[in-house]
Amino acid sequence: MTQLSPHRHHAIDYVELTVTDLEQAKRFYTEAFGWRFNDYGPGYAGIQSPQGEAAPEVGGLRTGQQVRAGGPFLLLYSTDLDRSVEAVKNAGGQVVNGPYEFPGGRRFHFTDPSGNELGVWAEA
Length: 124
Hints:
Layout: E1 12-19, H1 22-33, E2 37-39, E3 44-47, E4 59-63, E5 73-77, H2 81-90, E6 94-102, E7 105-111, E8 117-123
Parallel strand pairs: 1-4, 5-8
Antiparallel strand pairs: 1-5, 2-3, 3-4, 6-7, 7-8
C-alpha cells in the first residue's frame, strides 16, 4: 500500500530558526511552548509536529553566529527539485546555494526578485 506524503508540492513546508545557542533555545521553546526536538548533531534540532512523534517535523533550530536578517527561514517542498530549480531561474529568481544533499533529501536556497531568501527541499 502506498503511503501518501504529508508534504504538498511548492507549499510552505518547514520554518527554520537560526539560534546562537542551540541548547538554550531548546530549553526556552520546551519551557515556553512544550516543543519537543529531534537532535541531528551539535548544530541542528528538528522541531516535532504538535500532532505527535509520527507526524512530520514542522521546523528546525539551526546554530549560527547571528540570527538571520529578515527572520525565520521558510522552506517549500518539491516533488521534483531539479524542475523547481529551473522554475525559480526562469521566473527571475537566483539560486544562491545548492542543490545539496542533507539527511533525508536534497535542497537549494534562492532569492526572489525582492531579495527574500527561501529554500526548497525534496525527499531522498
